[in-house]
Amino acid sequence: MSTTQNPLRVAWLCVLGLFAVLLVAGCGSSSDSGSSDEITSIGQTEGAVNLIAWAGYAEDGTTDPAYDWVTPFEKQTGCKVSTKTASTSDEMVKLMRTGQYDGVSASGDASVRLMAGGNVDAIDMSILSNYADINPSLKDQPYNTTDGKNYGMPHGWGANVLLYNADVVKPAPTSWGSVFDEQEAAKYKGKITAPDNPIYIADAAVYLKATQPDLGIDNPYELNDEQFNAAVDLLKAQNKNIGEYWADATKNISSYTNGDSVIGSSWQYQTSTLEADGQPVSSTLPEEGTTGWSDTWMLSNEAANPNCMLEWMNWMASPETQVQVAGWFGEAPANLKACAMDKDSKANCDTYHAEDQAYYDKIAFWQTPVSDCGDDGGSGGGSDCKTYDDWVQAWTEIKG
Amino acid sequence: MRLSPVSRNVLRLAVGDTLAFIYIPLFIILLYAMNPAQTLAWPPESLTLEWFPKAIQDQAARDALLNSLKVGAIATAFALILGTLASLAVARHRFFGRESVTFLVLIPIALPGIVTGIALNATFTQVLGMDLSLFTVIVAHATFCIVIVFNNAAARLRRMSTSLEDASADLGATPWTTFRRVTLPNMRSALVAGGLLAFALSFDEIVVTNFTIGVGEKTLPIYIFETLFRPNQPGKVYAVAVIAILLSMIPVYLATRLTRGEAATARGAGAAGATTGATN
Amino acid sequence: MAAEATVPAPRRSAGKRLADLFQGRPRLTVAALLAAPLGWLVIGYLGSLGVMLVASFWHLNELSGEVQQGFTFDNYTQLFTGDVYRTIALRTVGIAAAVTVTDAILAFPIAFFMAKVAKPSMRSLLVVAVLLPLWSSYLVKVGAWRLMLSQDGAINWALEPFGLHGPGFGTTAVWLVMAYIWLPYMIIPIYAGMERIPDSVLNASEDLGAKPLRTFRKVILPLTFPAVVAGSIFTFSLTLGDYITPANVGTKQFIGNLVYSNFVSNLPLAAAITTTPIAVMVIYLLVARRFGAFEHV
Question: So what CATH class is B57-276?
């Protein structure tokens, strides 16, 4: 091989030249946010709709023929549904910002960012007929409303529960201490699981709020330096006992089936699926309270099919669909009429505490952490709270 | 090479172990494809062939397979053209920066797929403002496939004496005629080999694909990625994979056949080189 | 001649005229040949890497998390001051090196057997046998390994009678699975490299009295080393960037996982992280080129 020329010099000269060109091109391409006018009517449907959804939120019967609320929607509205399943809120935000999707089933840690980023449109909810029947507790919440404007249709809510293998974990746990307390957690070393999600730091904060009142934690999403560091240290200590952080609900299920996980924070969805499969699992809402999600269907401000998306929102909020969704996913429906359809729907609502205000109050619903600590007394107000960016960085360090 | 019986047996043992290491997991994949249960517990309690017809009939899998074939074929075609052009320049001409061409074509495959993936994603979506689609996947795949064709073609050109081409020119043939009638026929098997490996790389690529594919579109690896860990019908996705392996025997076999005739001229470069691009 | 390849001449005379244009103008010919491939690779590909470099100096809006263009060294400061990033980078490079060495050790005997010992029919069979795994889905292999390595999986099932226990999920599992998946990428270049060694060279070594082991050490190893380096480019680079295997059989993060998760949540930081594998690979390639490995890729 000849060594007469330095190939890199040539290559990098090219890069340098390009670099200058692209610097200009790259910086000049920032896309403008679309209009932020409120949507006040539904027009002609477009024939298709592209959704970003959590697994199990848009079932078309391929997983289980008994659960299909996509096909009837397509028949009724002529909107062909394409679903992209996302496994984290971060992914949902990212996908929404591509502008290639019409809407999303956003949890509070995503919806706040989407509203702040102007990625979703405000909607006059009175144009959607089923909104009137939505549980009032879910209306006008910080995770779906900004400046008095509504940004979407509540989908349903649920708690992050402590899921455990009842054959292995005895006696039945009642506290998050089973996964956070060093001695307790060491009993299941290597078989504890936790969600692979920065927002899980709030779970540690919920536990600390109950066990270390000195820290003065009030809202687990509004943490000052001291509170935040305590939560992060707790999670770093927990890391030694973690077998796997789960990002995908279905993988979380297989970990319990294959014996790789025996206890950890999960959704009711995993519990139901595992129970239906005959696995010896059980789940509980620990005494410290818990975190949870309340999801909202939101409309992209760059939606190519806004009218189909609006129809989809209304469809998802109808009592019939809500029964199916809640039954399939294992969550509390947003539309309380879904609790009064028949005996099964009533039982389902009881299982997921849809009408149980005391249960609802035990849940700190996901929201994006921002530096503004809010006006509650606990964190002392102010604007020195840790931002989501800090949470993400800390999460990287926790996992190692 | 003359080996003592002992060392020959030690060698055989090592070869056997390596083959076992390669094939036991593939065999287990086959067992999973025949597992009727909803959960892939080990060992399977019974075996079934029901997943194979279901896999063949699965419309989503068929569409994904078709997309993969489409992407692989077009990306390979691009790579063949670009790789051949570059190889002709490098192997038949001397010019300033010749060595850096070799380096440059290698970079897309030598850098981790995730780097290529997010870089192209950013360029397509942010700089060019394009919507991602199968076309962007094709462009991305062609980028890292160029080197495969390039290396095969350049190696062949370097080994090929230029005397035939010179004779053709002396007899009055235009460069195009010389290329078409003399150079290209001699490069054929190297191009087939490079094309096949390029196709194989594209066919199984997931990382770059994941970052460059459009909404709702699926190649076979994307389909597998999205269905692999779903609890329902777990056997089916493994059956799809087994079928894909069986189908892939066809091109591997063809490549072996196609290049066998050349073994004499190419001094034993043989099937492996020809099917993998490792020949030189 | 290339220009004609892309622009089919409608009439022969036109083609001839075009051909005359290149006649005796080698620089023009080279330019025409290289215009398309280098045009894309430099503008399209290196340009994309340049875009990433630019993006690595951007930052996120606090509230919306949207990318803000501007200029800040914050991402790099974060990378160089955070212990966790150094740990992850070292872990990744370490596993990539371990996978490469493992694959080289595993590949040598079978490549040698194929190239110099096996009869032609056996050789073709082995070639196909080694190639076939390349065609079986990477993802399905990872999925199968995940099941095999799990607590109730095949490995523990097979080891249990001996009172042993498999590695379970973790960094060891990542090393094992990566070594498995990338092995063919090492076998094939080594095989091709060995096949290029004329038998006469080996015979000469033997005739001069060298024992097989000595022939291997003094003749085969040096002659195939460039091929090993060529194979190692693949095994090393593929391991360096993989995020799917660590996410499925590992418990700790690798560079690929960092890039992947930050691509979703913090693109500028992801872009800054990619400079590590890019720098590592460019150095690796420059070293590999010294060994003449590019001829073997």
Answer: mainly alpha
Q: Which residues of A touch B101 (CB under 8 A)?
A: 7
Mean pLDDT of C47-76: 84
Angstrom distance (rounded) from CA B8 to CA B21: 20
Residue ranges and CATH numbers for the domains of chain A are 48-155+295-354 (3.40.190.10), 161-266+370-399 (3.40.190.10)
How far B144 CA lies from chain C's nearest CA (Å)? Answer: 10
Q: Give pLDDT tens digits for A121-173.
A: 999 999 999 999 999 999 999 899 988 999 999 999 989 999 999 999 989 99
Q: Is B125 in Cβ contact with A277 (below 8 Å)?
A: no
Closest residue in A to C66 (Cα) is A117
pLDDT for A344: 80
Percent of chain B with pLDDT over 70: 89
Q: What is the reported pLDDT for B97? A: 83
* Residue numbers in C near A191 (CB within 8 A): 151
Tokens of A364: 């700190």
| Three-class secondary structure of residue B277 per DSSP | coil
Q: Which of A84, A98, A254 is closest, CB to CB, to B229?
A: A254
Q: Judge if C109 and C231 occupy the same domain.
A: yes
The radius of gyration of chain A from alpha carbons, rounded to an integer in Å, stands at: 23
Q: Residue C233: inside a domain, yes or no?
A: yes
Can you say how many angstroms the Cα of residue A304 is from the centroid of all Cα atoms in its chain? 24
Q: Is residue C94 part of a domain?
A: yes
Per-residue confidence (pLDDT) for residue A381, from 0 to 100: 60
Interface pTM (ipTM) of the complex?
0.85
Test mutation, B118, B138, B218, B222, chain C, max C CBs within 10 A:
B118
| Among B272, B12, B3, residue whose Cα is nearest residue C110 | B12
pLDDT at C121 over 90: no
pLDDT exceeds cutoff 70 at B7 = yes
Domain borders along chain B are 57-276
For the ranges C18-32, C146-160, C192-206, which has the lowest average pLDDT?
C18-32
Q: DSSP class of residue C45?
A: I
pLDDT on residue C178: 96
For the segment B166-199, what is each residue's pLDDT rounded down to a tens digit? 888 888 888 888 888 888 888 888 898 889 888 9
Same domain, C113 and C163: yes
End-to-end CA separation in angstroms for chain B: 22
Bridge partners for A300 per DSSP: A120
In the stretch 237-276 of chain A, residues with CB closer than 8 A to chain C read 242-245, 247, 251, 254-255, 258-260
Query: Which residue type does A179 have?
Result: V
- Find the CB nearest C141 among B25, B101, B123: B25
Inter-chain contact A94–C169, Cβ cutoff 8 Å? no
The two tokens of residue B193 are 């080999």
The pTM assigned to this predicted structure is 0.85
- The 10s digit of each residue's pLDDT in B188-197 is 888 988 898 8
Contacts of A84 in chain B (CB under 8 A): 215-216
Do C174 and C250 reside in the same domain of the chain?
A: yes
pLDDT value at residue A36: 52
In terms of residue numbers, what domain contains C34? 2-41
CB–CB contact C266 A389 (8 Å): yes
Do C240 and C107 share a structural domain?
yes
- CB < 8 Å from C in window 102-121 of A: 113-114, 116-119
The Cα B89–Cα B98 span in angstroms is: 8
CA–CA distance, C22 with C29 (Å, rounded to integer) = 6
> What is d(CA C173, CA C150) in angstroms, rounded to the nearest whole number?
10
